[in-house]
Amino acid sequence: KNKEEGGKGGIILLLLSPVDPSVPHALSCKIQMTASYKDRMAKEHELSEEVSLKTDYDSDYYDNSGIRKAIVLARYGKLMMEWLEKGPTLAATANKSDWLERFEKMKQYLLAEIEFCNEPDFIKEVETIDLILQPNAKATPYMERQPIPQAEPE
Questions:
Q1: With a threshold of 0.90, does the pTM exceed it?
Q2: Chain centroid to CA 121: how far?
Q3: pLDDT tens-digit readout, 45-62
Q4: Sequence-separated (6 or more) residues with CB below 8 Å from residue 67
């Protein structure tokens, strides 16, 4: 966005691993989190806060919709990175059915999150998955494509 409109903000997701995997999952705990950074003027800053984590939920838990959206995109990004590391075409992949299943599950997950989070922009990720699953498809059934604006000739 431009300066007048301001920024959309940002979020950092952390994947935490248990210190002791033998401890049961259904516990709550407190951790001390510290973030160090330099601002635009190269001035160093540090923020520290104790955070309470609850892990006794029966299913996924999201503190707010911004976190939920970030997790959706992180899961999508992880799948795409794994796929790109293995090879960019399903036809050349030895375990093609596994990848087809993973992409189909991600597609259904994204479609559900579009509704739940009221986030129509996730359709771009669904369209990308459609192109991977059906590379010869001309259009996605989920939305009509708008013509791409052409740059004016100089």
A1: no
A2: 12
A3: 999 999 877 766 566 777
A4: 11, 13
